[in-house]
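Final report, Chapter 2: Outcomes

The project's central promise was a pipeline that accepts a single protein chain and returns its three-dimensional structure in a standardized token representation, suitable for archiving and comparison. That pipeline is now operational. To close this chapter, we reproduce one record exactly as it appears in the project archive, with the input sequence first and the structure output second.
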Amino acid sequence: MRTSDNSSQLNQAKGDHIDPDQVKSGSQDSRSREFDVNLGTGIGQHATNKPHAFKTLTKLLCFVLIFVLLNQLCCFLFEPYLGSSEEMWRGFRSKENVELIYTGSSQCITGIDPSVVDRELGTSSYNMGTNMQSFYSSYHAIKTAIEEKNCTTVVLSLDDELLYEDFNNNFRADASFQHAADKTAPNIAAKLEGAAGFAVGSAFFAKPGSVNYLFPWIYNRDMDVAKNVKEKISGEILESDLATHRDGNGFLPSDEVMVPDNQYVSVEDALEWDRTANTVKDLHLIDSNRDELEKICRLCKDNGVTLITVTFPYPNYLTVYSVKSYADMQNELGGLFGSYGFSYYNCNLARPEFYNTGELTWYKDKGHMNTEGAANFSSFMAKLIKAETSEGHGATTDGNGASIEWFYRLVVDDNGARLE
């Protein structure tokens, strides 16, 4: 019996033996079932994530759309129908022939009447000045005039204040200028090139101007919303607003006459004024603006364009700047432009037999001329332009041109300040 039981147990043990191939096969089946379960779970998760990603993308697109529409609404409400820069660019590009341009700040807009110059010289000219126009923008105005109109002569107005003003501190003026240039550009490629050049160019990249460029209503705005909307709907400038707009040649006329409520200092009294006044500052030229002025010189020289650089007259220049720094600046600017073969004139120093700088009724305020003043100054400039563009003319290395005898030289030394 024991033998039989032992044999039975042995046989049972043999019967319970598991074939290794069966174990291997079973293990594979188990992993396969586990993979199927996991795969099934992953597919389910992926299917669940698809609607979630679609919803996120939809929300993002809706936000962008709403943002763009709000930006456009703000532009419609706050941008003027024709701002100063846009009006300038539209007028310039609509004029068929432009051989002579004037560039600069608001002193240029109100100081040069192209119709007067054209009548005396038989030219076709345009005033490309804009409010607080930096030398960076003046360069682009001149470049465009050369490329689009084959311009041959440029009068560059030098606003004393802008010699030491970093144009990044007044990005609104440059952004308005560039936005208007792009808006009126002749084709899409030119629009994109201008916008990209401003937004990511070295002058403004990573600065407020490059970011704000996308929001024109921030830098090019008029808070009279009712007027903006009425003019845009009608497509016309309101009659009550006509006095603030340019004529067909880019000139901004004005019948205002300044009230001489400020003290104006003669050259002889300037040193005493410098010792007693609290607001006098030294006039200087910062490096970035010197670079832009030299770029303008190279642009004109490379294209065979005559460049005439001029400081427009204004009655209080010696109450703002110390007479010594002002005299030094004349030498510095003369040397800068003269090194490229171009002339420089400061019309505050014009001799009275050629131009009367002291006639206060010719000014609308202490920095800008009125229509009568612009007519007289433009007539004077016509004569200067004629002399500068005459055959065989060339400026000396210190910027003295063909008309240098029409101007005094400001001298400051141990004997005082005087005109020679």
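Archive annotation: The longest strand covers residues 306-311.
This record, like all others produced under the grant, will remain available to the consortium after the project formally closes.
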